[in-house]
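queue> holo job accepted (xanthosine-5'-monophosphate)
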Amino acid sequence: MKQDMIAIIDLGSEENSAIARQIRAYGVYSEIYAHDITLNSLKNMPNVKGVILNGGVNNVVDGQKIDVLDELFEMGVPFMAIDHPTTKCPCGSVDDIKSFIFDKCKCEANWNMENFIQDQVELLRKQIGDKKVLLALSGGVDSSVVAALLIKAIGTNLVCVHVNHGLLRKGEPEQVVRVFREEMGATLIYADCVDRFLDKLAGVEDPERKRKIIGAEFIRVFEEEARKLDGIDFLAQGTIYPDIVESGTKTNKAVKSHHNVGGLPDDLQFELVEPLKYLFKDEVRACGKALGLPDDMVYRQPFPGPGLGVRCLGAITRDRLEAVRESDAILREEFAKNGLEGKVWQYFTCIPDTKSVGVKDNARSYEWPVIIRAVNTIDAMTATIEHLDWKLLDHITKRIITEVKGVNRVCYDLTPKPTGTIEWE
Ligand code: XMP
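queue> job finished
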């Protein structure tokens, strides 16, 4: 790392990530460290130009007052404390950060994606040498950016495995193969496991059992593919900075446990490669863009691991799954055409396993309803619905009932989270 860095020491504040983001937005790299980091560890970080002590209310965590080690102040760089007074260094507020990093610490604004990519390529080459790396490439933003970065660093020594479990959206497996194998020249194993997954899921109604089957089967396929390969020493993962921060630091309670790719077991015996683990989501997207990935991959809306499996409600049937896939494709096409792509946080269709009576071609029909869901949220913990234009809803409805086989009715879900979750299962 050749860029200047500001170290944020976490004294129980919930604003650490926001401050790190703000500093990076000024073009200066920043990382968050636990309050008991030693002077030696801090000195071993490259190019630390300043330290911000970021406290919560009175630096108290779980009733206990916490502080940094006194030796830290021998670091020989400027310190600033944010949020409550200390005698050990000057105090300031969030508004003082800019002048602290540029006037006091004399940082250069040299943190950008081109530099990040250059650094990572060097680091990855040093870590991996001429060994091979395995990556489960779902086509999601994080795994796609990891793949693009590793292709740049080690070329065909990256082995990507793309598992098509039959629950991906229309055109997704084709896009992964086209972009990575054909356009980027990746070594890509395409595992067509559609029948295998759908057979396993046949007749299973319970959402949790469906999720468990999909997750466990995914690991099995991935392990089988890994076993067929010789000489793999590393496993790449799309871990990003919020995964690490949200897993809980020494002062922050865990928001959610850090999930690795498909929950792979430790006994796979690979060394981990996690080149995005210090990037925030928007930085991951910027990195993907700088590496030449297409916009619809980089700016893709969130998509759950179990995919359309949790949108084909109840026991999955192939006809309903196809209807979910087709109606979702129409919805996405219309949102894109009407400037809603990138404006609405998440939108999709789902189909319950209940039919209703209708009229089609002057005859009675007994077919599935499609439910449209479009929500906005900041952190997916709560969500509000998008107030869609009626004309657009009319148009989408017309397209779905005429173009999607087996569907005679369309509903719009008005439920916020809570009480609903974003997904139906
Ligand atoms: P819920 O339905 O819990 O969803 O309100 C919140 C967000 O998480 C996504 N989601 C998942 N993402 N694996 C994932 O990677 C999953 O199993 C999963 N389930 C839900 C959901 O799409 C929404 O964005």
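queue> Residues 254-262 have pLDDT under 50 and may be disordered.
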